[in-house]
Amino acid sequence: xxxxxxxxxxxxxxxxxxxxxxxxxxxxxxxxxxxxxxxxxxxxxxxxxxxxxxxxxxxxxxxxxxxxxxxxxxxxxxxxxxxxxxxxxxxxxxxxxxxxxxxxxxxxxxxxxxxxxxxxxxxxxxxxxxxxxxxxxxxxxxxxxxxxxxxxxxxxxxxxxxxxxxxxxxxxxxxxxxxxxxxxxxxxxxx
Length: 191
What we know:
Elements: E1 6-9, E2 15-17, E3 31-39, E4 46-51, E5 61-65, E6 70-77, E7 82-91, E8 98-104, E9 117-120, E10 123-125, E11 127-130, E12 145-147, E13 158-167, H1 173-187
Antiparallel strand pairs: 1-13, 2-12, 3-8, 3-13, 4-5, 4-12, 5-6, 6-7, 7-11, 8-9, 9-10
C-alpha cells in the first residue's frame, strides 16, 4: 500500500472542520469513531479526534490517548455539567501505524458508558466505564470537529494520522475488522 499519513509534531498542528449536526450525537443516537494513527509515546494526553471545548464547556465527545497511554472516549452532558468516559485497561501499542476505534450504542443516563466498546486493530480491548448518576445525554453544541487537538488547541497529538472517521451508527466488531482490512491494503500494514 501507498497510503498517505500526516505527521503531527505535538505542538499546534491539527485539522478541523466546521461544526455540523452530522458529528453531534444525542442519545439515543449511536455512533462510532475509527482512526488510523501512529501514536508517539509521550507522557501527555493526545487527541485523535474531538468535539471538545473546555473553555466554553461546549463539549460533546473526545477520543484520545491519555497520559498513561490508555485509549479514552469521554462524553459531556453540558446541562448537567458532568462527564462520563470509557478507558482501556491497558496502554495501546505505540510507535507503529494502528487502527483505533470505538462504538457507542447511544445509551444515555447513569449507565451511558456501559455499552461502549473500544478497539485496537479491529479487536475489542478490555476497558472500564466511568459513569455518573447525573449524566443524561450529550447535547448538540457549536464546537467544530478537530483532529489532533481539542477546540482549545490543547492535548496536541504527536505522531501521524492516516484517517479519522465518524460514523452515525454503532459499528459491529466485524465492521471494525473490515476497516482494519481496508487499512491494511491502503497502508501496506498487517494489523
